C-alpha cells in the first residue's frame, strides 16, 4: 500500500539475489502516471547488483517501455496478457486482440535484441468482472503468446479463486497447446488455495512456480485480503516433498523479515509467523 | 462426477472441532452461552459431527470447565454427532451423565509429548483409553481415537511413520471406530503426509481414517489434498480457524472449515455442508470474541462483499 523508497527496493533485490533464487522480477517499465509505485524503474534497474546466473526480468507493456528497459540494462522482459476481455478492457483499455498486437511490437524488438520474453496470462481461473473463465479461452490466449515467441507462459490465478479442481481443468486444456516445460503457475492465496493449487500443477508436470517473498502484494480486487503466495511457504512445501529449488529457506526468511520491518508490516508467510522450535 | 473421474472420494465427512479444539486454544475464555450459541448455529449448517467440549478436570483445562452446562445446554439435531473428549474413565462417566452419546480419546505418536501433556507413557495412556473403550462398548457409545504429533513433535522433532501406525493400530484394536491423525504443530508437508498415511494404511482400513491438519506453516490444505487423493474421506477443521498453536506463540493452528469447504466444493466433492451458514457461524464467533477470522475465504468475502 505504501510507496517503497528506492534504496529499500534495491536492498531487497540484493538480498533475494543471495538466497539461491534464479529469477527475480525487478520492476516495471510502465508510465509512472499509471503505476507510481514503479516510477523509479530506471534507478532500480541500474542500482541492483546483477549476479551471474540470475535473471532480472522487468515488465514492459509496450514498445516504449521495452526500449526504456533495454536502455536501463534489462536482459529479459515480461508482457502481461489476460484470458478475459473485460479485465483487459478495464486494465489497459483495449481488447485482448489489440493487446496482443501491442505485444507483437515488443516481441519483434526483443527478438532483434536477443532478449527473452516471458508471457503472463491473468484471470486463468476466474475474473473479477467476468466471473468464470473457460479453460479453452486460457488455452487460446496462451497458445497465441507462445506462438508469438514467449519462452514461458505464466498462468495467473489473479483473484485467487481457483481450486485444485479448476486448476486441473485449466492446465489440461493449456497443455494441449503449450508444452508443459514452457508453463508456469502464478497462484494467489486470497482464498487460501494457493499451495493446494500449486501442488496439483506440480502433479501435472509444471515445474516453474511464481511466488512473492513474505507474500508481499495484496489483492486490489478484495481490499485487505492477501494476494501473492509467500515464497517461504512454497519453499517449505517443496523442501518437504524432496523437490530441489536451490533456495536457502533461512536466507529467504531473513529477507522477508527485512522487507516487513522496512515496510512496518506483518509478514503474510505462515512459515515466518510460526516460531516453533523444531 | 468430477470427483469420481479424478479418483477422489465422492463424499467427505467434515468433523468440526471449533467449539472444543478451537475454543480451548483461544486466548480468551469464552462464556458458556456463546459456546452454546456457536454450537447451535453449527448444528444448522449440515455439518455431520461437532466436537462439543472436553470432560477433563477444570484444573488442567479451565476453558472447558463448563463442560456439563454446554453438553446439557445445546440443541441436539438429528443426524448430527456431538462427540466429547474423555481422557479417562472418570471423564467418561461424567460425560455420559451429562448426556454425551459419543466420546473421543487423545493418544500421541510421541513419548515426550505424552509425558509432557498427560504425565505418563504412551502405553500407560493406552491402558486408560482401554478402560474408557470397554465401558463405552458396554453402553454402545462409539469412541473416536486421535493420534497427535503424526507428522512431527514439538519436543522430539521428526516422528517415524511406523510409530504413528503402531499407535493408530493400538487405538483401533481397543475399539475406536475412527482414527484422526493430527499434524499437531502443522509442520507436515505433502511429502511427510504421504509417507505417514502409507504406513498407517497398512494397519487401518481407509474408511476408518481421518486427518486433522494444522495450518501453522500454511501447509494444511495441500496436506489435506494429499490425504484425500490417497482416499481419506474424513477431515477435521475448525470454523474461522479457531484455535492457535500453543507451541508457536502467535502462530495459527487449526485449518479453517470455510477454506476446506471452499476447496472441496471446487473439487466437486459433496460434504452436505451449507458453506454460507458456516461463514455466518464463523462471523458470529469472531464478533463475539472480538477477533479477526483465520479463514482466508472469510477475509476475502468480507472485503469484496461477495464470494466469487
From TrEMBL, chain A:
GO biological process per UniProt: ketone body biosynthetic process; L-leucine catabolic process
Coiled-coil boundaries: none
Enzyme class: lyase
Record protein name field: Hydroxymethylglutaryl-CoA lyase, mitochondrial
Family membership: Belongs to the HMG-CoA lyase family.
Lineage: Eukaryota, Metazoa, Chordata, Craniata, Vertebrata
Compartments (UniProt record): Mitochondrion matrix; Peroxisome
Keywords assigned by UniProt, alphabetized: Acetylation, Disulfide bond, Lipid metabolism, Lyase, Metal-binding, Mitochondrion, Peroxisome
GO cellular component terms, semicolon-separated: mitochondrial matrix; peroxisome
Record's subunit section: Homodimer; disulfide-linked. Can also form homotetramers.
Function as written in the Swiss-Prot or TrEMBL entry: Mitochondrial 3-hydroxy-3-methylglutaryl-CoA lyase that catalyzes a cation-dependent cleavage of (S)-3-hydroxy-3-methylglutaryl-CoA into acetyl-CoA and acetoacetate, a key step in ketogenesis. Terminal step in leucine catabolism. Ketone bodies (beta-hydroxybutyrate, acetoacetate and acetone) are essential as an alternative source of energy to glucose, as lipid precursors and as regulators of metabolism.
A GO term, aspect molecular function: hydroxymethylglutaryl-CoA lyase activity
EC number(s) on file: 4.1.3.4
UniProt keyword RNA-binding, yes or no: no
Record domain Pyruvate carboxyltransferase: where: 1-253
Metabolic or biological pathway: Metabolic intermediate metabolism; (S)-3-hydroxy-3-methylglutaryl-CoA degradation; acetoacetate from (S)-3-hydroxy-3-methylglutaryl-CoA: step 1/1
InterPro entries registered for this protein in UniProt: Aldolase_TIM (IPR013785), HMG_CoA_lyase_AS (IPR000138), HMGL (IPR043594), PYR_CT (IPR000891)
Entry keyword annotation includes Lipid metabolism: yes
Main location: mitochondrion
Catalytic activity: (3S)-3-hydroxy-3-methylglutaryl-CoA = acetoacetate + acetyl-CoA
Automatic annotation (TrEMBL), chain B:
Enzyme class: lyase
Catalytic activity: (3S)-3-hydroxy-3-methylglutaryl-CoA = acetoacetate + acetyl-CoA
PROSITE patterns given in the database record: HMG_COA_LYASE (PS01062), PYR_CT (PS50991)
Molecular functions per Gene Ontology: hydroxymethylglutaryl-CoA lyase activity; metal ion binding
Pfam families per the UniProt record, alphabetical: HMGL-like (PF00682)
UniProt record similarity statement: Belongs to the HMG-CoA lyase family.
Domain of life: Eukaryota
Annotated EC: 4.1.3.4
Name of protein: hydroxymethylglutaryl-CoA lyase
Keywords, in A-Z order: Lyase, Metal-binding
Biological pathway: Metabolic intermediate metabolism; (S)-3-hydroxy-3-methylglutaryl-CoA degradation; acetoacetate from (S)-3-hydroxy-3-methylglutaryl-CoA: step 1/1
Amino acid at each position: 500500500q505504501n510507496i517503497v523508497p528506492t534504496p529499500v527496493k534495491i536492498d531487497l533485490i540484493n538480498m533475494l539475489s543471495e538466497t539461491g533464487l534464479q529469477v527475480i522480477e525487478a520492476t516495471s517499465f510502465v508510465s509512472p502516471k499509471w503505476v507510481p509505485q514503479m516510477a523509479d524503474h530506471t534507478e532500480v534497474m541500474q542500482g541492483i547488483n546483477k549476479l551471474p546466473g540470475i535473471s532480472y526480468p522487468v515488465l514492459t507493456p509496450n514498445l516504449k517501455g521495452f526500449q526504456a528497459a533495454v536502455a536501463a540494462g534489462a536482459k529479459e522482459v515480461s508482457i502481461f496478457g489476460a484470458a478475459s476481455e473485460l479485465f483487459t478492457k478495464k486494465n489497459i483499455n483495449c481488447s485482448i486482440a489489440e493487446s496482443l498486437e501491442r505485444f507483437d511490437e515488443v516481441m519483434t524488438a526483443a527478438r532483434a535484441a536477443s532478449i527473452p520474453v516471458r508471457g503472463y496470462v491473468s484471470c486463468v481461473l476466474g475474473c473479477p468482472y467476468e466471473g468464470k473463465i473457460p479453460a479453452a479461452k486460457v488455452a487460446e490466449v496462451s497458445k497465441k503468446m507462445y506462438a508469438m515467441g514467449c519462452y514461458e507462459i505464466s498462468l495467473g490465478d489473479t483473484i485467487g479463486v481457483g481450486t485444485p479442481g479448476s486448476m486441473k481443468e485449466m492446465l489440461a486444456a493449456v497443455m494441449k497447446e503449450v508444452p508443459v516445460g514452457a508453463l508456469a503457475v502464478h497462484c494467489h492465496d486470497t482464498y487460501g488455495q494457493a499451495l493446494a493449487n500449486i501442488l496439483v500443477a506440480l502433479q501435472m508436470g509444471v515445474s516453474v512456480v511464481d511466488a512473492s517473498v513474505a507474500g508481499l502484494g495484496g489483492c486490489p480486487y478484495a481490499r485487505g485480503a492477501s494476494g501473492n503466495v509467500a515464497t517461504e511457504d512454497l519453499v517449505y512445501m517443496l523442501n518437504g516433498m524432496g523437490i530441489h529449488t536451490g533456495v536457502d529457506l533461512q536466507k529467504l526468511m531473513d529477507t522477508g523479515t527485512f522487507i516487513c520491518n522496512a515496510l512496518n508490516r506483518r509478514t503474510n508467510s505462515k512459515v515466518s509467523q510460526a516460531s516453533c522450535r523444531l | 462426477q468430477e470427483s469420481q473421474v479424478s479418483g477422489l472420494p465422492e463424499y467427505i465427512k467434515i468433523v468440526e472441532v471449533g467449539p472444543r479444539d478451537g475454543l480451548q486454544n483461544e486466548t480468551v475464555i469464552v462464556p458458556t452461552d456463546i459456546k452454546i450459541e456457536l454450537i447451535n448455529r453449527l448444528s444448522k449448517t449440515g455439518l455431520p459431527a461437532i466436537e462439543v467440549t472436553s470432560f477433563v478436570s477444570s484444573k488442567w483445562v479451565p476453558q472447558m470447565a463448563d463442560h456439563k452446562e454446554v453438553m446439557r445446554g445445546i440443541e441436539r439435531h438429528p443426524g448430527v454427532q456431538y462427540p466429547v473428549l474423555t481422557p479417562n474413565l472418570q471423564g467418561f462417566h461424567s460425560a455420559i451423565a451429562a448426556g454425551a452419546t459419543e466420546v473421543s480419546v487423545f493418544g500421541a505418536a510421541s513419548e515426550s509429548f505424552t509425558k509432557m501433556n498427560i504425565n505418563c507413557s504412551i502405553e500407560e495412556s493406552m491402558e486408560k483409553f482401554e478402560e474408557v473403550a470397554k465401558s463405552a462398548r458396554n453402553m454402545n457409545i462409539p469412541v473416536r481415537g486421535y493420534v497427535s504429533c503424526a507428522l512431527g513433535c514439538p519436543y522430539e522433532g521428526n516422528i517415524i511413520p511406523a510409530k504413528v501406525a503402531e499407535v493408530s493400530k493400538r487405538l483401533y484394536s481397543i475399539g475406536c471406530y475412527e482414527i484422526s491423525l493430527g499434524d499437531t504443530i502443522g509442520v507436515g508437508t505433502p511429502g511427510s503426509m504421504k509417507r505417514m498415511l502409507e504406513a498407517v494404511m497398512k494397519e487401518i482400513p481407509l474408511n476408518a481414517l481421518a486427518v486433522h491438519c494444522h495450518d501453522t506453516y500454511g501447509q494444511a490444505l495441500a496436506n489435506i489434498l494429499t490425504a484425500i487423493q490417497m482416499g481419506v474421506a474424513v477431515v477435521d477443521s475448525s470454523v474461522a480457524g479457531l484455535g492457535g498453536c500453543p507451541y508457536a506463540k502467535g502462530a495459527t493452528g487449526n485449518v479453517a472449515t470455510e477454506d476446506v469447504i471452499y476447496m472441496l466444493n471446487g473439487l466437486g466433492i459433496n460434504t452436505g455442508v451449507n458453506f454460507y451458514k458456516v461463514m455466518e457461524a464463523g462471523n458470529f464467533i469472531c464478533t463475539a470474541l472480538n477477533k479477526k477470522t483465520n479463514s482466508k475465504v472469510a477475509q476475502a468475502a468480507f472485503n469484496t462483499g461477495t464470494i466469487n
